[in-house]
Known about the structure:
Structural class: alpha+beta
CATH architecture: Alpha-Beta Complex
Order of helices and strands: EEEHEEEHEEEHEEE
Strand order of the largest sheet: 1-2-3-7-9-4
Oligomer: single chain
Helix content: 10-25%
Low-confidence stretches: 1-21, 182-186
Number of strands: 12
Strand content: 35-45%
Shape: elongated
Mean pLDDT: 83
Distance between the termini: 46 Å
CATH topology: Aldehyde Oxidoreductase, domain 3
Number of domains: 1
Amino acid sequence: MASPAEAPKIATIQNDSVAPKMPNPHYRQQEESISVALTHDILDPLSIMAEVKSPKAGAIVLFAGTTRDNFDGKPVTHLEYTSYPPRALQTMISIARSVKAKHSLTAICMIHRLGVVPISEESILIAVSAPHRHAAWRGGEEALEECKEKAEVWKLEEFGGEEGGVWRANRDGAKGVRYDGGPEEG
């Protein structure tokens, strides 16, 4: 069992002085060579790549998930993400630890945006570094798929020309629950 000094920390970050490399994450959990975060700010791919850069790495792989303008033949106006941050960070750090060990990664960083994400903007960035490209490719893809499957992050898809939207967990694919935007009946 880790001592309190070795235990991962969850921090609410109010300004850039706490996390100089990342774009002002609202929630962040970090340990050696692993960083995960949730933020309402615009994501910066270069910053996350800097988080995993190392002289021990011969490859860096960056995945940037963006909001596309359609889903299942319907025009999408934007996505809105919400989360239960303490649990989502715990899940994300667990995924990062597992993927890092399995693929012998040098470092891994995952950051998910919360709130409204307009068309063409990034909602998730995952960067991994490894001594060789094959491990980096495999590790990056596995981190993404595991995050989509397990992290406690949900999205509301808003469609053009329709009132309300559809709430989905990332793992739901085409399934979802219709939301009309009105007050809940009880």
